[in-house]
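Researcher: I'm comparing several assemblies side by side, and this is the next one on my list. It has 229 residues spread over two chains. Same procedure as the others: predict the full complex and return the structure.
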Amino acid sequence: GAVVSQHPSRVICKSGTSVKIECRSLDFQATTMFWYRQFPKQSLMLMATSNEGSKATYEQGVEKDKFLINHASLTLSTLTVTSAHPEDSSFYICSASPARGDEQFFGPGTRLTVL
Amino acid sequence: AQSVAQPEDQVNVAEGNPLTVKCTYSVSGNPYLFWYVQYPNRGLQFLLKYITGDNLVKGSYGFEAEFNKSQTSFHLKKPSALVSDSALYFCAVRANTGGFKTIFGAGTRLFVKA
């Protein structure tokens, strides 16, 4: 149980294009989903927290207009990297939590490469 | 403010020997503490958590962690390491008073040598 999927697992795009990453909780309803960014050999940096049906809460320094997050249902959240640039290349990981106080279940991550 | 420190970038241990991966934390109120493991190009896998109760928490794959409130530590341990335990380990903390943000440590890379 408690499986979270991400799609795509890997994406390569040209600079200036937009990329959408999906995060799905497959066997539970996720009241809260989180989006992280991980640079090589570094820890996870929380980008934003989203609750179903409401606007995401972005961490300081994260551009909300560049990283659009939509939590349309209790099983799906999307992260859209708009007008991507090479410096946006990173490993993006989502996680989902079924209720306050429970652990987070992580997706397998999406490797974004912007050329 | 919440913070997590993993003082060792890397831990090397021989297979069959006990292993310890250190973690200290700072948080207002009582903490929720977690350990996760990450294999290359993969997401994080949950190992164990401490919310309340017994200070010694047992988790997946034979791992355990001891919550020490006075030392604000939550070290990860395993009595006998396996080569397959080689991975990146993250300690994480979340305050249980308001907010839901989890802070991750920098990670400790564990190498288990055969």
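Model: For your comparison table: The mean pLDDT of chain B is 91.
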